[in-house]
Amino acid sequence: MAKNRRGEISGAGEIRRWMQALALTAVLMAYPVSALWEREEAGAEVQEEVQAEVREEIQTEAQEEAQEGTSGVRPRVALTFDDGPSPEYTPLLLDGLREREVRASFFVIGSNIEKEGGEEIIRRMHEEGHLIGNHTWHHVDLSGLSTEDAWRELEMTDSRIREITGEETDLVRPPFGEFPQGLEEPDKLYVKWTVDSRDWVTKDTQEIVRKVVTDTEENDIILMHDCYGTSVEAALQIIDILSERGYEFVTVDRLLLD
Ligand SMILES: [Zn+2]
Questions:
Q1: Which residues line ion ligand 1, judged by CB < 5 Å?
Q2: pTM, 2 dp
Q3: How wide is the angle at C-alpha 220 spanned by C-alphas 205 and 216, nearest 5°?
Q4: How many angstroms does the Cα of residue 139 sit away from the middle of ligand 1?
Q5: What tens digit of pLDDT does each residue of 93-122 get?
């Protein structure tokens, strides 16, 4: 057999081995492509599963941390609703609050209690642990009234609520945020707000939700109105979003007095 390179591979056995090698290469080239493809696909799936698990873990940790805070106390905010009770919308809000085990504060207009179903709504608010505050009898600007008339606006509303719930209303939200002049009522607490949802202006659920969840921070008092369907829907979405971020909803007296 020739000793040159060509001669070395030109024997019948050599050629057969080469043919086998070529065939194997062809198989290897065809087969592993699909095998690798499958392995990559499987790898991607596993990777996705792991990432989803990690994401979930991080989210849970973040939620737990947010809920506990560094001191173990969740940041608190208060939802307050003015101008009710509304026979049409307040019961829907109360249903949503009960479902979410959230307590809110209602600054009611005395004359609205006299509307059909009003008394029952006040009783329900009280039974379900919400705070009931005073928003005057006629929704009037207290700063423009005589001391006597301002006192009457508050007292009429107070006594009507007391008749129904058996309890005093200690908190007053003055309509338009205007405080009465010279009215000495040391046992009353006048409560304004720190976040204005502007729900009665926009009447747009998504706009109200966006504004409130953007503006709200710890210890904020959120102003809304339970006499619009858009406000009720927005309030429940706000609760869901802020609860997810770790906030606890409390009645406004707890923010002021605790
Ligand atoms: Zn009002």
A1: 82-83, 175
A2: 0.72
A3: 45
A4: 6
A5: 999 999 999 999 999 999 999 999 999 999
